[in-house]
């Protein structure tokens, strides 16, 4: 699949049969709704697009996630949610038989997923578990990480639900599961396998669950959601309602680049024009244009900015980078949508 943007003459909801939708930063912010999210997702469903919400959060049960979404006017059933806990349990099944012993270091959602996969729960490293399944839970402490380290050092297979270093909260970014996993890695020197994004495991499991043929990944983070899309060979839509900005997309390396960019989830209900090269190094999308000159991104100064300018800027920056031009981050302006 191309490392550049893709175009679509029809709304994305009409060109795909399944949307793999991230949660925080896409469907909601914490406990607050995101403008246009409910109407856009409901409208996409009405066009025949199936939705499956895919989250790196391993501490919550699918039923809890579905209840929260439904409370935000995005009607959702538990089987329309896939968590990193479920992906972690599925990854364990690739090497371990049911009945194997697993030390769970994480929240209730991970405990449930491991149990439902047929594994026995170990109480600590002294039980000589076959594996350690590690996921985020705010109540985890030093003793929990120590038990994980003892077990891994003793030969247990270390599987992380995800390796997100940060976790968005109402007060800002807090240490995520990746930071806690790093503590175990520092103590043992053993790198774990990871089930969550940016590994494409969850996307693959979700596509298999539904039997989709034309899936679309939707996310707000380039380093997890869109990197996972690239790694799995799935087209990805980057919505600018969460962590990664339009400027981040312009500066993205090939393994993090989205295939589509939208201001918000209304992008599901819209066509996506493909930027085209023009004279003097310009790339144009609609009536917006951008080019790179001596490592500096130049953008149209006349008229509003908007999402077409983001698309043109991505095309210009990526083409220059792929030709070996070093793009100066300080030379990429902030683009509003």
Automatic annotation (TrEMBL):
SUPFAM superfamilies assigned: HAD-like
Which Pfam families does the record match to this protein? GNAT_like, Hydrolase_6, Hydrolase_like
Give the record's GO CC terms.
Answer: cytoplasm
Q: Name one GO molecular function term.
A: phosphatase activity
Q: Keywords for this entry? A: Hydrolase
Q: Which part of the chain is the GCN5-related N-acetyltransferase-like domain?
A: 285-328
Question: Superkingdom of this entry's organism?
Answer: Bacteria
Query: Can you name this protein?
Result: HAD superfamily hydrolase (TIGR01450 family)
Tell me the classification of the organism that encodes this protein: Bacteria, Bacillati, Actinomycetota, Actinomycetes, Micrococcales
